[in-house]
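Continuing from the previous page of notes. For each protein in this section, the sequence appears first, followed by its structure tokens. Read the first protein now.
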Amino acid sequence: MDAAQPRLTQLANGELIVANLTVGAVVGFKTFSFTTLAQITVTLKSTGQGALVVSTTPTGQPVATIPVAPTMQQWQALSAATVPLVGEQALYFKYRGTGAIAFKDFTLIN
């Protein structure tokens, strides 16, 4: 396996993360039923700087952009407001920036 590629990894505590997301990498989750969505919070580690862009299709318009800065190998919760979403939608997270991130989880806030 190429260590430079994004990959699903199990931590020592049993949690699963998506490791080594570099520029252009996309992670998608299907399907959510929204009545309203106001904010997204993600938990990640970062060695670089950029943004995690959230959309409803892999190449769609952003519904949120979460700024990312180096986290010194500590898990950090980062949040951003979203455009209103209603109905059934998928969510895609695309990294734009330098270095790499490890993506642990996300929380949807109405």
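Done with the first. The second protein uses the same format. Note its length before scrolling.
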Amino acid sequence: MPDAWETSMGLNPEDATDRNTRGANGYTMLENYLNGLTAPVLAVAASNSTTELLQAYPNPSQHELTLAHPVASRGASLTVYSFDGRKVLTLPAASGTRETHIRTADLARGSYLILYTDAQQRLSVKFSKD
């Protein structure tokens, strides 16, 4: 599992045994990761709130990506990670909005993970840069 994914799920990238931790859905974290390889969206709630999904389009992206997210609360942010675990971009999600535009033109070709965080939830979605 990539370190960025483990970190976004509250796991310790240095502890291989935490892959056996069961998530709220009853699956182990390893199973959640593997299931996420075939699903476009990975999500986990920081509390018992209802999980809402993220959508990233166009995917793959060349110049700009639109991220559709839950209504952003004050302090909501987006962090983009490369699949080798490097943080490549952090930006705020404007309070009260449901979409954030991300400039991808300067990113290298490859796969990325976007982590959306606000006071109630942490959501992630994968996208590709052509």
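What the second structure shows: Helices lie at 3-8, 29-36. The beta strands are 41-45, 55-57, 64-68, 77-82, 87-92, 99-103, 110-117, 121-129. We return to this in next week's lecture.
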